[in-house]
Amino acid sequence: MAERASILAPFRHGNFRTLWLATLVSNLGGLVQAVGAGWMMTTLTTSHNMVALVQASNTLPIMVFSIAAGALADNFDRRSVMLVAQCGMALVSLLLAATAWMGLLNPWLLLAFTFLIGCGTALFNPSWQASMGDIVPREDLPGAVTLNAMGFNMMRSVGPAVGGLIVAFAGAAAAFAVNAASYLALIAALWQWKPKRVQPRLPRETLGSAMWAGVRYVSLSPNLLAVLFRGFLFGFAAIVIMALLPSISEEFVGGGALVYGTLLGSFGLGAILGAFVNGRVRQRFSNETIVRLACTGFALSCVGLAFSRDPILSHLVLLPAGACWVLSLSLFNVSIQLSTPRWVVGRALSLYQTATFGGMAGGSWIWGMTADALGPQWALVGAGGVLLICALVGLSLALPQFNDRDLNPLDTFNEPMLKLDLKPQSGPIMVMIDYVIAQEDIPRFLKLMSERRRIRIRDGARQWALLRDLEKPDLWIESYHVPTWVDYVRHNLRRTKADAENVQMLRALHRGEGLPQVHRMIERQTVPLDDTTPLRDSPEVAP
Is there a contact between 22 and 185 (Cβ–Cβ < 8 Å)? Predict the structure, then answer.
């Protein structure tokens, strides 16, 4: 099973090794930049809320723009999308460094630059994470996701300390310049990577249609909704440490930029340890148990950090927080990827990021205001309480287990030979499927049709209905609409091998001759041109 594969298995693939190493360099630069931005804000203002908003400004774009970025990841070449994102972030980071060097930064300008870098991250992340399924096989996917998390946290264990040294001895502008240079490694690696290109059978969806298709798919997938909600709660509460650590370092521990960097490094070291035990933990415990333990452990770390005034103790309590962070977030990510077919995986991941990073952005703001009103200590305690609530939510909304459902395309659909000259945008199309069902099979048939309805609407059908003939009670008709012919073809191409089980069970109940009969029709409307003109048929083929 996928969850039992070795964590190091993805390193067998050369493309993964190259891109993973390049992301290490890029992540190092990003963490150096984060230290520089967080510490510079403490020199520009005494407001805890403004300090926390540095974190919020970096995560808010991911919440706002991830859905659009996910649609781009599923409809355009992911490598090209990632290159555009990396080049854009490099340019913004260079401008930030120049502005800081000239002494022109103020709190709101710093937040604006951080927001723009967050926009690049929002564009990059869905394509990067969705590309894991293109770089490594399915059985290595959990290991690849964990290694990505581990790589980031490896840099988190050293990057903040490096950032603290750079800020302490060369200033925040130097940290921003280091970040600008760090993008070059990943840009070069992406430029050299030549993924296999699959020629699309159909024209691209419009951005709005693609975004809605992703929202529709996730909204009709209960397991994905459970992951999104738990990710939101965890992100909302757990971000308190990242958001308030600059203030905690200065007020509770009495340290400067270097101590702030080492505290972040301790969090990152704990995350690396969590990544190494991730596979073993998944083998021993259910997904829900892991999330509950991680939420509880992080809550205890928050309380410990709130009441610690000793530098060594503060570093120690951040170790389990880092481990719990990576255990939860990597589990959420893998759950999304293994529960979603390839055609919509970028959008599903983007919605997960919208939920999780939206929680982080909101949490950064809420905990910052709480720290201003009551002090950082009580903000940490409050976040710990929310984490305990997140653990208890699992009693009624448990996280799903990984499953072995085959979400690869069924790929058995062949376009029928039509006697009308339809264009791709011709429509609307109505589809009717006849079933002959014996009286004793009706309860089973209705149960299967309930699942059928969810699958149909999830994959793009509209106005789904199940009809029963009044004169022939054994005759049942499934009907649904799609806007255009190309939407009908796309709807059928989205069917997965896992969905075939429902089709086969319905066919087994069918008592008619051969397979259930399918009727495909284009709608014709009769519309009066005015009150005195006779009705006239509209053209057979819509423009």
Answer: yes
